[in-house]
């Protein structure tokens, strides 16, 4: 597979596609590696994973440069992602030996306890928009709790995950336990459709999520789906003035809008709306779009040409449907970036609830800005979506913040901030945004299963209550 740089459209690497036969053989090897790894002490597993996290930090510049060149995210943002990804290994390395079971009181003379055990070989399939984050978000908990894990990165951005695979080996992970299998849909189907897979964890588009859920259903395999979003940011007139504009803008344009959590519906309370509209428009026009490796760049290109074309098309469709461009940033002018996949960061207004731009995920730096009059109307507009991944509330009224947070139909709600995520906190969606939660105890639940062990304490078999 040719791997392109979105900065100038050049080919920066060639990566072999993994054919289904090789996927099948990787699953066989992973099963063998699992048999050994799952029996190792969690403390030892934690040690290896900690080393992996430390090695990622040693290689952080290399990984961040790869990510900036392949994904197109500014270097500083790429470096922050690499550090967060390394943090996943460190966090889960420390959680590995804290997974405990219960002794459960029951009727009758039994010692009954539950333990958590790993599932087996986990299939992880991830998208192109934050490759290193998604790779570690799945690999770190899967491995920490004793599973094997086969990761299929996106065919567009596999480079950082491939380097991660060699880092894991250098850290001392057994050969074959955690393989990265680059490829497209056929590789993904071979992996998720194999009956030897014990858990499927997927991040990506909801259409693909349905195909994965169908594959999982065929083999009765548990699965978790992190899908798209069309998240709202509710800006009340009493929003904290010192950070609302920067916060809302970064909530939608971060990573060139290629974020499932992008707060791409901006709902502004009428009272303060004129001033806020002006602030948002002015900030959007000032966004520096350019080479991700150049200092000062705030917004890189879209990662793929197809995504650039989709974003441009959705802006055009919105305008044709009656939306007005409130503000647009500039395209970079450097001739060497002429073939890059850049789009203008764009705020649209005069939108109506049925428009495509309000209902469908763009995955580019585009937001629809509209107004509301009452709190009830704001909540109704925010919840008027098939998705349910995230939402943001900007207000300094504490009672309102908690009322609205309770009423929003979303897996995550941010208040006076947007987009912060931690491995310690459960994350996942509702409805078209998927099901299942990752992070903290939710990750323990996802990557392990309960086993109950009942032991009779009866001295005399005749008195044991065997229920025939
Ligand atoms: P995608 O669904 O097209 O692809 C995701 C992965 O699935 C890729 O690796 C792809 O090769 C693979 N794939 C495709 N068809 C498959 C099949 N039938 N069986 C198995 N694997 C298959 O998504 P994308 O375009 O790479 O990423 C963008 C989408 O991801 C957006 O919708 C975005 O919102 C979503 N996303 C969600 C989250 C989240 O945490 N909720 C995070 C990031 C991105």
Summarize the structure.
By secondary structure, the chain is α/β, with parallel strands linked by helices.
Please explain how this structure is put together.
The structure is a single chain. With 468 residues, the protein is an alpha/beta fold. 40% of the residues lie in helices and 18% in strands. The protein folds into two domains: 2-227 and 429-453, Aldehyde Dehydrogenase, Chain A, domain 1 (3-Layer(aba) Sandwich); 232-415, 3-Layer(aba) Sandwich (Aldehyde Dehydrogenase, Chain A, domain 2). The longest helix has 21 residues, at 75-95. The radius of gyration is 24 Å and the shape is globular. Nicotinamide-adenine-dinucleotide binds at residues 125-129, 152, 154-155, 184-185, 188-189, 192, 203-205, 208, 211-212, 226-229, 260, 361, 363, 389, 429. Nicotinamide-adenine-dinucleotide is lined by residues 125-129, 152, 154-155, 184-185, 188-189, 192, 203-205, 208, 211-212, 226-229, 260, 361, 363, 389, 429.
